[in-house]
Design goal:
Number of helices of chain A: 9
Helix content of chain A: over 70%
Radius of gyration of chain A: 20 Å
CATH architecture of the largest domain in chain A: Orthogonal Bundle
Shape of chain A: elongated
Oligomer: homotetramer
Largest sheet of chain A: none
Largest interface: A-B, 45 and 47 residues
Amino acid sequence: MAKTLGLRKNPLKDEREQAFKQAALKLFSTKGYHKTTMAEVALEAGFGKGTLYWYWKSKEELYFALVEESHNEFVDLVRRAAEMEGTALEKLAWLGKETVELHYRERDYTKLSWKMRAEELETFSPEYVERMHENNAEIKRELQRIIEQGIEEGTLPPADPYYLACMLLGLVEGMEIQWLEDPEAFDLRKAMEMVLSLGAKVAGQRWSD
Amino acid sequence: MAKTLGLRKNPLKDEREQAFKQAALKLFSTKGYHKTTMAEVALEAGFGKGTLYWYWKSKEELYFALVEESHNEFVDLVRRAAEMEGTALEKLAWLGKETVELHYRERDYTKLSWKMRAEELETFSPEYVERMHENNAEIKRELQRIIEQGIEEGTLPPADPYYLACMLLGLVEGMEIQWLEDPEAFDLRKAMEMVLSLGAKVAGQRWSD
Amino acid sequence: MAKTLGLRKNPLKDEREQAFKQAALKLFSTKGYHKTTMAEVALEAGFGKGTLYWYWKSKEELYFALVEESHNEFVDLVRRAAEMEGTALEKLAWLGKETVELHYRERDYTKLSWKMRAEELETFSPEYVERMHENNAEIKRELQRIIEQGIEEGTLPPADPYYLACMLLGLVEGMEIQWLEDPEAFDLRKAMEMVLSLGAKVAGQRWSD
Amino acid sequence: MAKTLGLRKNPLKDEREQAFKQAALKLFSTKGYHKTTMAEVALEAGFGKGTLYWYWKSKEELYFALVEESHNEFVDLVRRAAEMEGTALEKLAWLGKETVELHYRERDYTKLSWKMRAEELETFSPEYVERMHENNAEIKRELQRIIEQGIEEGTLPPADPYYLACMLLGLVEGMEIQWLEDPEAFDLRKAMEMVLSLGAKVAGQRWSD
DNA sequence: AATGAATGAGCATTCATTCAT
DNA sequence: TATGAATGAATGCTCATTCAT
């Protein structure tokens, strides 16, 4: 009996927003932030230039809305890995596989996120940069928790867990670069499997001595 | 007593070129490609804007001249590692240490090079991109040679050497990122030492089974 | 008990119109024509942006509706002064006092009107500009009638009455400017009293010689 | 024998700057600040749009450069009047005449300055607004000095000199408006003569009683 | 009748590059 | 040879106005 009238406009709005986001994602991930113009995004989305500014108040905001979405998915993954049941190695294996799947599923997001990392951060407002850094720190913290567990379990070497987290993250990110630059030659899925199987093999050895 | 002035203007010319390159390196590595203007480079170098164009025909060319210089140093390092005497592990250890030293010595170059990696390559002229890719491929090839030697020697796991090269390169590049983003918290030298020591420990095990 | 709703929507309509006008007056007089947006006016009035266009067909029209209202009040005052009983000096004294009271009562209107005077009239549609000029001319005509009376009565100098009207108007407008720019330092009421008392003192002398 | 080479470029630069200023003056005084575009100014001056920014760093700065030039001329006039030899009445007469001549000579400047007065000051950076106010205050201060002298000499009524200054300034500014709005019907020269002759007539009377 | 999402012309400003001197 | 003044294409963003709902 109660009308849902107030809600009815949202689907349309959401659709539009999605169209813009898709267009922006495509362009930003292909051409990068600087070379993508708002006019192009609007054109690609099939709307007027001004309409973009109804949804985001600036190019920067649009960009970071996408970047953050991408980051959040990964943060979420790491968090879930840290909180799941199982040994550290199991967690890492799960995380590795899920990460790869995420990247394959959302290649554009990965590219975008990646470009942002090397982007001239000086370009952006400090608030956004700050948020990015916090995100990164959070990822490392969660990773560190898993690693600390692994060291306790004796499957990971008894080294500085922060450094191990950075190195692990670095390894994965470094592989991502290779993959993004030449996806034909370097299959990220296969690479991750190799890493995990090597890791498993190595984990058996006595670290402590 | 007689001046060689009429003979060679190169000394002067080289000085200027160096001044420009230094200025450009500083600015590009600090502010990134897009946020650095030719006017700033000229100002920083202490010469006229127009003069820049006597040495490089465009901003792009100036940028890539620097990037390439940086790359060449690394390519050179990898090549020398591949050609030196010793076991694969020794070569990798040497390469790792030298790489780190290179980065510390030329932090600006590293930063520049790194920014360029994720930079909107698609937006640069294909000729430059092509050259970058070729450079990268060369690095991987040399790395692969070392790795193949290691597999033969039994100190590296008997896996696809191209993938191992990519992974190794990825690891180092990934660590570089961590270092560049927070040099206080992540000491690249220490990290490299950890990697090498872990590698050495692990290398002893029987891979083949 | 029976609602008159079906009969007249005007009460509602008028309310809205008043709300819009009030909002517009406040904003235009504070921020000026160019810096005030239709969106702000609508927001301030508490109605939708589109609704504004039901009452006025353009920003310009809204603006001039207000300006004209303000002008009309003054025209009305001058007209009443010209038509009242009494000597020219009495009329001018009454007009001077009433004008000041009007300005104090409707400071926003005065400000608005004043801004419009120097506003880039050339940029408004000719129809509006024409109307403004006609208004001004009317004011001068009425003023001139009073002045002619004064000259006949011998209390005003026997000079070109049109010029005297312009000068009188100029004096008052000039004082308005001083007042608007710094109402603390320049009290318009006090100033007008000074003018009138000086005028009275001076009026006694023999003009004709 | 010494070359004046270093100076030789200035004439050219100055020429260019003059051309821009002339174009800007014409447009600003005709169409006002908001409706004049930088592109128009450049076009009118016969140069490229970007060149404007070589001489002034913003539209605002260009505008105030002109406004200030205009103001300075008038400030200078008032200052010279205050400092010349003679009675207050002589000073005011001289000032009145010179002011009128200035306006006739530089009608565009007068228009510009005038428009600026009513312009939405909120539009401009506080530094400029501040400067304008200071200018105005200075004018009133000098005027006040002359008036104080006149009161002492008994030729001006013994009233608050600040108010008299404001009123005098108001009168002249008010007349300027009349003139600018309809120069055919209201001849500023004639009007000023009338004011001065009336003033002279009136000045003879005994103010004090 | 009322709305607010959509539009796109319009504008200030930047900057790589050119070229007269 | 070296310069810096000149250029104009390019771009992010605003806002009066329209119109589907």
